[in-house]
Design a protein that fits this description.
Mean pLDDT: 85
Distance between the termini: 96 Å
Largest sheet: 5 strands, mixed, barrel
Number of domains: 2
Strand content: 15-25%
Order of helices and strands: HHEEEHHHHEHHHHEEHEEEH
Helix content: 25-40%
Low-confidence stretches: 319-324
Length: about 350
């Protein structure tokens, strides 16, 4: 496999430090003693277009470090197989650039969508599914997000996962300086998010703890959960109204969590996990990328979700409520009228 010939040891160390917590851990990764990351190798079908993506996820930091996204009409994209190694896919993409048929805007859009979808607490669920080798669950999450983003219903995502050293993503990345990685939209929007959250009170750590305690004291039971994130259709932090119904996902990893989810309506009749509805109370924002979202959930429990940045939260769409008693009355009237017509016709013919 091709190894870049311009590797700078200081840059390699700096790159690896993005995935770990110390210089000692970074050196362990570089020396081959520790595999600290996962590579998600995605093959995407978007109706008449195809895509191949490499997504580097830090297992330790629980976040996406880099995404390379190539989407377009080129039939050669489809020839790249996800079962190939990360190194081979880098080489395949490099060769692909000579053929054309790559839509850079769509490639960036798809990559940014995945950044948003796998952000915050959603990453906990993704890492759980990665370790359990539940690739189909990850594919379903990404398919749903891409359908909302692209409006292409006929979307399919195929995925392979490989445990790697994050330093190898630097070492074997033959695309660096030739084809751009996807820009993280969460970092791009940091200034915008700061403006949007001016109405959310920024507190010191001590004040945050005091504010949290004030809320916890009002509820006998607190359930930690994840906010239902919807980048396209969700409501922004500063636009959430008091008591507005919002969707929350209850954790279901342990037996205790599953029992709690079942008690609070986190499963459908056929046993499928579904979000629960909570009425918004408030958001408390701290100084270090911590946003605490509170809502009153089923059976009066306090739902507590925490995000690292402002997100759009999904909410129930009100549907027209039909009065069943009125429908029954209409049916009775129609039936009576039909019977009366039948009797009249019978009398006339007899």
């Amino acid at each position: 496999m091709t190894v870049r010939d311009d590797i700078n040891p200081e840059e390699l160390l700096s790159y690896t430090l993005r995935s770990v917590n110390s210089k000692e851990e970074a050196m362990s990764v570089i020396n081959g003693d520790l595999k600290d990351a996962f590579i998600l190798k995605l093959s995407i079908d978007l109706q008449s277009k195809n895509g191949i993506l490499l997504i580097l996820i830090s297992e330790i930091k629980k976040k996406i470090l880099d995404i390379y996204s190539v989407v377009g009409t080129s039939t050669n994209i489809k020839k790249i197989r996800t079962f190939e190694s990360m190194e081979q896919i880098f080489e395949d993409i490099l060769k692909l650039l000579d053929y054309g048929g790559i839509e850079t805007a769509l490639s960036e859009r798809v990559g940014r969508c995945i950044y948003r979808t796998l952000s915050g607490n959603a990453m906990e669920s993704i890492l759980f599914n990665i370790k359990k080798k539940h690739n189909s669950e990850i594919s379903s999450v990404l398919e749903e997000a891409l359908i909302v983003e692209t409006k292409i219903k006929n979307t399919q995502v195929f995925i392979e996962v490989e445990r790697v050293k994050s330093s190898d993503f630097y070492t074997y990345n033959t695309l660096r300086g030739i084809y751009p990685e996807v820009r993280n939209p969460l970092e791009d929007e940091s200034k915008e998010n700061k403006d949007k959250t001016e109405e959310v009170q920024q507190l010191s750590k001590t004040s945050v703890e005091q504010a949290l305690d004030e809320i916890f004291l009002n509820y006998k039971r607190v359930v930690k959960c994840n906010a239902g994130i919807s980048p396209a259709r969700g409501v922004e932090f500063n636009k959430i109204k008091p008591n507005q119904p919002l969707y929350f996902h209850l954790p279901q990893f342990t037996e205790e969590e599953k029992n709690t989810a079942k008690e609070l309506g986190g499963f459908s009749k056929n046993g499928k996990a579904i979000p629960v509805v909570g009425n918004f109370i408030k958001i408390i924002a701290g100084p270090k990328n911590e946003y605490h979202i509170f809502a009153k959930g089923p059976k009066g429990v306090l739902l507590h979700a925490q995000e690292t940045h402002p997100v759009r939260i999904s909410f129930p769409i009100e549907e027209e409520v039909i009065d069943t008693s009125s429908i029954q009355m209409i049916v009775i009237i129609i039936a009576g009228f039909s019977l009366l017509i039948g009797v009249l016709i019978f009398l006339l013919l007899s």
